[in-house]
Amino acid sequence: MLDRVFQSINARRSQSIASLKDFLRIPSVSTKPEHAPDMRRCAEWLADQIRQTGLRATVESTPGHPIVLAATDRKPGRPTILLYGHYDVQPPEPLEQWITPPFEPTERGGAIYARGAVDDKGQVFAHVEAIRAWQQQGGLPVNLIALFEGEEEIGSDNLENFLKQRRADLAADLAVISDTGQFARGLPAITYGLRGLVYMEVFITGPAFDLHSGMYGGAVHNPANVLAELLATLHNPDGSVNIPGFYDDVLPLSKAERDQFARLPHDDRKYMQELKIPGLFGEAGFSTLERSWARPTCDINGLTSGYQGPGAKTIIPAKASAKVSMRLVPNQDPNKIEAAFIQAMRDRCPKTVTIEFAQHSLGGPVLVPLDGKPTQLAAAAIKQGFGADPVFIREGGSIPVVGQIKSILGIDTLLVGFGLPDDRVHSPNEKFDLDCFYHGTRTAAALYAQLANL
Ligand code: BES
Ligand code: MN
Ligand code: MN
Known about the structure:
Layout: H1 2-11, H2 13-25, H3 36-52, E1 56-60, E2 67-71, E3 80-86, E4 106-108, E5 111-113, H4 121-136, E6 143-149, H5 159-165, E7 174-177, E8 189-194, E9 196-205, E10 211-212, H6 213-216, H7 223-232, H8 255-263, H9 268-275, H10 288-293, E11 297-305, E12 315-316, E13 319-328, H11 334-348, E14 354-363, E15 366-367, H12 373-386, E16 391-394, H13 401-409, E17 413-417, E18 431-433, H14 434-451
Parallel strand pairs: 3-6, 3-7, 7-17, 8-16
Antiparallel strand pairs: 1-2, 2-6, 4-5, 5-18, 8-15, 8-17, 9-13, 9-14, 10-12, 11-13
Helix pairs in contact: 1-4, 1-14, 2-4, 4-14, 5-13, 12-14
């Protein structure tokens, strides 16, 4: 049967690519209020595609962006799989760095370039095409519930309530997410660890309005100077994070896991060349993979103060702010880390200015068990879909819903992603290789066949 499903996938290849481009043309940027109509249009478009395969699909309103919910009829005696993905995308800026515009998907060198190509529209659509192929061959072999949200890139704030309210409709044996990557070209992966995220904004306020820096400079504390000094305290010279208590709950890496990371074909020199950086930085005593997968970090994501126009303007800015995010690893607690960050910044802030905080997102780290049947079945599906055995990896990004799926629905998640490390996720010129789209679609189809044996 799977062979016939693979044939259906083959036969639709060019149509699949054309439809994916339609999906990518909708600028579903969740963080920008002016895109709210595009968000709804995108959800409706996706629901319609799923309906075409023969599944029920509805667009469910939330206080934020809508959720697309689809399902097969529940047949008794079959495992139920909850497929999760997101149709929202990151803002495309800086626009001038795109070779072709972010919402005009373009094929180049065997890849589609567009914002959301791999994160996550292309991977979502691989599943839609796999579902379509199964439906053409008499129907999916599992009970499937598909949930596609529009707020992943802004922290999945409304999803938690939705999962709680619809717990009965969402009851499943296992969740599947394709929103991660392969380790390298030709080396597909099952991801068993993701980092958590605490995303804060710090606001420093000084005088009531911008002041002439000649008249007041030296006598009035400059909020931009204060902010720079505060942010400079966040790291120690050895690259570690300087927040009291930050490392208290960090689970150390075992020797076995470090050895396993070290066996993966990672090359620091190639990594530096690809990123065009003259040197590597990070916590002393850890490798690049350890630093980016299994060690916690603190990074400034945005910095604003003073005059930003061309040329000079001599002022003491009235205020300064920074967006600072921390990636967390097991067993750090996001609430504790948020509190520790706020405490450290307050303690270090001089009394000559005021300091305030906003929290933009909070999500825990995850480690999913690898010793169960789902892992074996997924490995077999990857072999069928990609023609290669997977490696088992952790990744540094965050998918807030994985923790919620465990705590609210009580099930584990299988993370099987189809992207490549050089897909430029969140960067200009994001892409998805057509080859990854094709093999990803096959893998999704094979996964449904395998998971029927759960
Ligand atoms: N798909 C990514 C998560 C990801 C990236 C997993 C790279 C593995 C490797 C997801 O869309 C994402 O970007 N998540 C955000 C979460 C946040 C906005 C709450 C992230 O990691 O920054
Ligand atoms: Mn994603
Ligand atoms: Mn993302």
